[in-house]
Amino acid sequence: MLANRKLILAHFWFAFALFGVALTLGAWQMFIRSPIGTWLSNPELYYRSLTAHGTVMGYVFPTLVAMGFGYAISESALEQRLVGVRWAWAGFWLIVAGSIMAVIPVALGRASVLYTFYPPLIGNVFYYLGVVLVVVGSWIWVALMSVNLRVWRKAHPGAPVPLAMFANVAGSYLWAWTAVGAALELLLQIIPVAAGLKATIDAGLARVFFSWTLHAIVYFWLMPTYIAYYTIVPRAIGGRVYSDSMARISFILFLVVAMPIGMHHTFADPQVGAGFKFIHSAFTALVALPTLLTVFTICASVEIAARLRGGRGLFGWIRALPWDNPMMLALAFSFVMLGFGGAGGLINMSYQLDASIHNTQWITGHFHLIFGGAIVIMYFAIAYDLWPHLTGRELTDLRLIRTQLWLWFVGMIVTTFPWHWVGILGMPRRMAYFDFGDPAIAPQALSVTFSAIGGFILLTSGIIFLVILARGMRAPQADAGPYRFALAVHQPATVPVALNTHALWVALMIALTITNYGYPILTLALTEGTSVPAVYVGAQ
Known about the structure:
mainly alpha, Cytochrome C Oxidase, Chain A, two-stranded antiparallel sheet, 17 helices
């Protein structure tokens, strides 16, 4: 039951339209930084582009996808009309308004601060207010997911919450708490300076606040992808979820251990003590647990589908998988990129090894492989799976869909693998220009060229994706039937309270965050003489 198709389509279309613009900017950035590009006379244009690209891809795009997908999950999994539709539209329009408010100063060169805000660099106040509006709009979605679940619980006392909705609400709670760090940084530190109420800022404290958000936001990005792994892929390929309980434990683990890990991004920052850096490094290692649990569970679910199709033998069942099914293809590509990206993350979390690749192109390669690779390719799959149910029209050109997915996978590999290599060689990130005529970096020119080529492959794939969706709006009408999620091999009649509610895990998430961030934040806030003069973007 999808009673509010226009609401969901609005979120997806706005998300993917902004995605197309940001993707184009990303390809341009790689081109002008490469040997095949020409010297950019005004490098500030590069940082405008980089700020717009990062802001859209980091904040607006994944938030809109999570919200649109979340509304679809709420109506389909709970089989009830969405409660609070007017509020949902209000949240959407707040995000639209915030996006426009933020992009105008960026386009005018008044907010080239990258999506990390980069204090003591200070942009135009309307950029930050626009980001705040995006967050507020998304918090309306968080509240609505909680309200809709409560309404369903009253009508179904003691019943197991459908897995898709349980995971969806967990993701919304993770985002609500994740965003608090950046919100505190903006409201308490950056916006007062940007508005002219203060002239100095404590850049170290600001970075700690942002580290609260910086890494946990990745797991918010991942939530729709993992929901698709568990609740869409098995159904799409004719199988079942290996274990409902293991799936719930995975999402609970993400909720608990994803938050207190962000300070591993400040290993090189002197204002944070080594003890807290070690604690965050250890918790970062714990995040591997829900991922490894997911890899096992989904591989088992896929094997079930293959054996139901006649697959035999220890590995012979792999040939029986429906490789012509775009959902199977997307899953395989996503897992490969998640594996490589996750392996790179092990280097980032190590206090010793991180020093060798800190602020190099390795970091760029790592997070693009995780977000742009493993996550975004499943966003495509989610859209393909939902589109017939949202439009009443079938996506018939499966060959073109497979081509688009192949191009995205190849493009991401060609883009990110050379970044990892030149990062090991010491190439810094966030640079608008490299002189490849210099003998010291001339050997890196070929790798950077490959990355630029990969960027244009990605752009081609992105354009094809948008064309497929647009054509799907005009395809012949077809009855796709109700939207369903995968069932478990042993669908539970009852679920333990700990695996059917979120309160305990949210409390633990908040407690761990306060434990791991409270002392550093309090110490920095009470230390005098740590503020520095603000540097205003565009000031003469």
